[in-house]
């Protein structure tokens, strides 16, 4: 496995280099299939690793040293266990399908080779993130995915909105990076190790629930929140929809944004040891899930709805890992990757069909023109809403069950999650009915045609995953990492399952009523809920808040320093010294009269003065001493 | 390192000093009209010097030699005063010497052949190269001072004659400001030797001698004003010179006008190398000769360094002149280096050392980019640039890599230094590390504003922006290569400098 | 009776004072120069006398130096005065203030 692991990393990197350096010279077909093929190859390697891990193998291998000085020893090492295997399978598997889809979706774009180069670089960085065996290289991979996210959000760099969105994403990510770096400092200064093996072995040396371990976990959480777009660092994700749809599918749905969940899961031994921090994770997750779901009900851009849906579902994952249900969280990660990627890619087909219009109110009658897209999107919606037997039902239910059956305050989070599940079903079906509805809501005689097979086949595969994914025994696969999950009694199991199905049905029914059957009721309700609706529609004005509190004061301070402090205060002091010197010089210059006689007088006077002083100090006066 | 040993009886270090001077002499003898010959002579000289320096770096052995110094050369100069011609190289100066050779080569290559009085320009650059190398290699305090002052003359003329804008004002301000610090240092140098003489009976200005007997004692001020520790006073004398040179806030106001007025080849070595000499001076003298004072005075200096990080970042955010923007960015990054030095521990200092090299590489690349923009667009005003990625994608790509290194993206060289420096700072003063972290976030903001403001959005402005030629890529290539190599596999660095840093008196105490 | 030392010094002082007063009072540059010479010679006298009375050559050596300096200075000074005269300026030390700032 020590060769397989680097190979998984190197194939996407090779794809990146080929497309980055030679992409413009190669024909499009080559570029696309190199890009997708490298990920496909990586997936095969990942499968091989999977078979080895199933047989109980693990890996913790150093390949070279990064920095060594005293006991600060950071190698480049790779760490493979069940958790990282699950991650790389999803990343390369779903990633491969999205790359194949992109061959069709991006075929008219002038930046074709640039796109695939960036996508490959992203997969490489993401794999580096999950395979790395120490915190420093994890941070390097972390930054790498942030970079690719920036590059791909701003892919259409002629658009000002895209440029600004990319910058916002990057700066917020940097905040997270700094938090993680600080966590690394605390870890090193207290435990003198940075690699996982060493770290996991020594965690228990710290007092349980003490300030140090809690601070470490909270700082790591800052990084996770930034990367996973949870409150309060979530504002960049909706704007990230400026990027091409495959980017939204891969980076901002299936993989990068789940990196925060991976981080907490990977560091589960630390979070188990810092209950306050873990509780914070759970609370933020639960609240974000609800927050995002409410916003999703009021949006009209198809990608934005899906973006908030992602934010909400990741909230579920955070909730899960926060309360210690790590396998549930990772299970939901996998199913979410399937149905969210599916939803985004299908949405991409629809957007293309409607000539880049993303407003759901302008869409309709999709079923006739794009049948495959229509049915797969429906499957995705059913899955995410938690309809029984679909994948989303199993994974989401497991989280809700874990929360509700736990003692203490987690119960309330579970309740919140349950309500959010209802909201999820509501806004997803609202989206479905408005965008895909039977009624023809826009002008007619637009010829809608289905997308290319290269775009539909991956979606179908993902749809299959969204259906059967729930039957994959993720929990038992992850047992070597997390131990066995807590089981509940059969009665509670069925009761809770029924409860979540009922909630989903309520959401569905409400959506059906308001948006399929009686749209005028929707309008009426919107007016009645006036201010609440505006609040939710504007994302609770958090963007505006951040602008007022951080961006504008920052620029104002900078301008103040530039226009007042630097020229007047600091440089003022310097120039004051110079001016003072000149002033004194002007005074002294008056001595230079140019007249010899005045010079002579002064010289003589001085000489006499010196003589007198010398005589005084020598005590020599002619009438005192002898001759 | 140490894949081979260089023959011992060749005065390698003196050769490093002589080669640029010989080149300068040859240039002086060439008629002024032979512009191509002059430039080629300059390039040839610096290439040979670089090759020599690389050979020296390759032959350097970790942990060997008297006080970890190697290739030492010593000659008596003024024996009655204990002044000698003593050169040596150790972990502190090794890679800086390499940076010196590399940046001067790049500067000469980038010099426009159409520069008026090219002969004198190249001549002064070569002399400056010898002077800066001398600063790095000198082990005798008086010799060091001679080179320190010698560096000012060519720099003054390079800025004052070939500069632009308020060049005379900038050159003059730089000169006077620096000289004030130098005088304080001169007094301190004489005092150090004098105190050493009164304590050991031996009059010597040699660093290797002085470092063995750190100055001690107290000076009682008259009229009951209390007493000042003598090491603290001496520390201050040296510190003033180096703090002005680096610069450390608030002694920085000479820097924006000087960088903005200097022509691109000059600012490459000015920002890339000369500023490091202040940091080097701190390590070589303040932290070695006065370790106790370093511990007590390190705190306030670290605070000033952190303020410099934040101040430089905020200023860079709102500059419209690209050169001035990079100047303040440089100041901000130098704050990191200062923070690492004054944190006073192994990781902080090693971080500062590697960051000195990183900063030299990054800032040289940034100024090269600004120069390219200015040459092609005819303007340095941020408001007049937009969308260059559409007309010059290769340029935008390379510009991007440089920008990412500048904001400390993990995986590139800037991160290595910043990580170690902040870790070192965290061990000593947590709030300062947090301040530095805020500086990192601000760096992302102002670097992206700079990069995106120039290369993104449409329509492209100016409409005509020629793409990079092979020569331009060639000049950037070694810098980009270093950014990647140091970012991904920097282990060669501690392997070379660890022994020296661990032996620094400030750490041993 | 051998001549006592102090009489030479007294003479030297008197001559020096006369020269100094003349230097300050007179306005013709040539006369000023003559007074300078007076002062220098007074000093030489003192040196020579003390040299003899202390049986040391140091004073005489110094007198040599003074004579040399006086000669050089006179050459330069007279040259300047001649140039000034030829340029038509007033031979008045107070009017020659071109070296002022």
Give a quick precis of the structure.
With 627 residues, chain A is mainly alpha-helical.
Describe the structure.
The complex is a heterotrimer of chains A (627), B (509) and C (101). Chain A has helices at residues 4-22, 28-54, 82-105, 112-131, 135-153, 160-191, 196-202, 211-228, 236-239, 245-254, 259-266, 268-272, 275-296, 302-322, 326-353, 366-369, 371-384, 391-404, 410-436, 453-468, 474-482, 490-517, 519-528, 530-537, 542-589, 596-618, and strands at residues 59-69, 72-80. With 627 residues, chain A is mainly alpha-helical. A two-stranded antiparallel ribbon of chain A has the order 1-2. In chain A, strand 1 (59-69) and strand 2 (72-80) form a beta hairpin. Chain A starts with a helix and ends in a 9-residue tail after the last helix. Chain B has helices at 12-29, 35-58, 94-110, 118-137, 141-162, 167-200, 207-210, 230-245, 255-261, 264-289, 291-317, 322-343, 346-377, 388-391, 393-406, 413-428, 430-455, 470-488, 492-503, 505-508; strands at 70-78, 83-89, 218-220, 227-229. A two-stranded antiparallel sheet of chain B has the order 1-2. A two-stranded antiparallel ribbon of chain B has the order 3-4. In chain B, helix 11 (291-317) runs parallel beside helix 17, helix 12 packs antiparallel against helix 13 (346-377) and helix 12 (322-343) runs antiparallel to helix 17. The longest helix of chain B has 34 residues, at 167-200. Chain B starts with 11 loop residues before the first helix and ends with a helix. Chain C is an all-alpha fold and 101 residues long. Chain C has helices spanning 5-25, 29-54, 58-86. In chain C, helix 1 runs antiparallel to helix 2 (29-54). Chain C is elongated and about 55 Å long. In chain C, 12% of the residues are buried. The chains are: A mainly alpha (627), B mainly alpha (509), C mainly alpha (101). At the A-B interface, strand 1, helix 5, helix 6 and helix 25 of A face helix 6, helix 11, helix 13, helix 16 and helix 17 of B.
